[in-house]
Model the fold of this input.
Amino acid sequence: MHVDEQQTSPMVTQQQSPRVMTRVVVLVMLIAVSSATATRAQFVGCPLIDQITLQACKVLEKLFYDTDGYNWRNVRGWLRTNQPCDWYGITCRSSQWPREIIHIDLSGNNLTGTLPGDLAFLKELQSIRIDNSGPGVRLRKLTGQIPTTLGDLEHLEILTLGNNAFTGTVPAELGSLPNLRELSLEANELEGPIPERLGQLLQLQRLDLGGNSLGGPIPDTLSNLTKLEYLNLRQNMFTGDLPVWLGDLNMLRFFDASDNQLSGRIPEELANLDALLWLSL
Done:
C-alpha cells in the first residue's frame, strides 16, 4: 500500500519538535552557566597586582566578597584588572609606589552584607563613603555592627555610612580620629547613647545621627565641637534637657533635634547662633 510522504512529514515534525526545544533550552542554560562561571573566574589574583601592596589588595578583595560584589550596581574593574586604582570607587595617591588607597566611594552601589574591619589596614584612607541611599538600593543594605577598627584610621576625614541597617552602638573608638570632619551615620538601627569620646573630634563639621534609636541625654562633651556646622539628632530617643552650651557653637548652621523625648525649656542661648539657618525642635 502506498503511503503519502506529505501526510507523514507533519507527524514527524510534531514528534521531534519537543525534543528540539528541550535541547535548545538546555543549550541556552549551559551557555548562561558557562558565561557566569567565566565572569567570576576572571580575577587576575592579588599576587599579579603591583600597583598597590598585596595586603591592600586582599582588603579590597574581602570588601568585594563580604558585600556581595557580584551584585553591585557598578563593578568596573573589580577583581578583573591588575589596576585597582582604576576600579570603580577607588582613588589612590599618585606620588608613591606602591600607591596608597586614600578614598573609597561606593555610595548607592547596592552593597549588602557586612563591612569588614580589615579596612583599618588601609592606613592612608581619608574618606569612606558607603551610603546606600538612592533609587533601587533601598532593600539592599549593610548589616551588622560598625567595625571598631575604623577608629585606627588616623588620616580619615570623612566617614559616611548612612541609610544602611547597622546595629549595635556608635563605636566610641571613632572618637580617636583626630582629622575627622564628617561623621554621617543617619538612617541605621543604632542604639545606646552618643559616646562621650565623640567630643574629642575637634575638627568635626558635620555630625548626622538622625533616624536611629539612640537614647540618653545629649553628652556635654559635644560642647567641644566648636567647628560644628551641621548637627542632626532627629528621630531618636534622646531624653533630658536641651543643653545650654548649644548656644556656644558659633558656626552651627543646621540643628535638628525633633522627634525625640527631650523635655524642659528651649535654651534662650540658642539666640546667640548668628549663623543658624535651620532649627527644628
Remarks:
- The chain has two helices and 15 strands.
